[in-house]
Amino acid sequence: MDILFRVGQATAQDVLDALPDPPGYSAVRALLATLEEKGLVHHAKDSRRYVYTVAVPEKRAKRTALKQLLATFFEGRPEKLVASLLDPQDQHLSHEEIDKIRRLIEP
After folding, report:
1. Residue 91: per-residue pLDDT
2. What is the maximum span of the chain, computed from C-alpha positions, in angstroms?
3. Residue 45 bridge partners (DSSP)
4. Distance of alpha carbon 83 from alpha carbon 86, whole angstroms
5. Which residues have a Cβ under 8 Å from the Cβ of 93 and sit 6 or more positions away?
6. Counting beta carbons within 10 angstroms of the beta carbon of residue 15, is it exposed (0 to 12), middle (13 to 18) or buried (19 or more)?
7. In the chain, which residues fall in CATH 1.10.10.10?
8. Please, where are the H alpha helices in 19-77?
9. 1 alpha-carbon distance from chain centroid
10. Tens digits of per-residue pLDDT, 37-80?
11. Is 48 helix (H, G, I), strand (E, B) or coil?
12. Which end of the chain lies in a sparser environment, N or C, as judged by fewer CB atoms within 10 Å?
């Protein structure tokens, strides 16, 4: 999704080429098909290729992904996500990063 938001439209090969540590081509195609089934992207046919574009605003896509992350790993509870981010055994946050998080939380 990040690649599509950045470039606007792309083929599966374009997405594959833009990934830093790419899986196989068929995995990228499968992922794009899954995203399309979920209504997050759509495609147009260009000769024999599918050209994919995003179907939802970036903010909505991020919100959907975050909800899925919360449900899958944190029992749907944002405080568990934040606690895991702040756990010194798991994360090596700088004092500056912790201060930024505190400023976001404090009213």
Report:
1. 67
2. 54
3. 50
4. 5
5. 85, 86, 101
6. buried
7. 2-54
8. 25-37, 58-73
9. 6
10. 999 999 999 999 999 999 999 999 999 889 999 999 999 988 88
11. coil
12. C
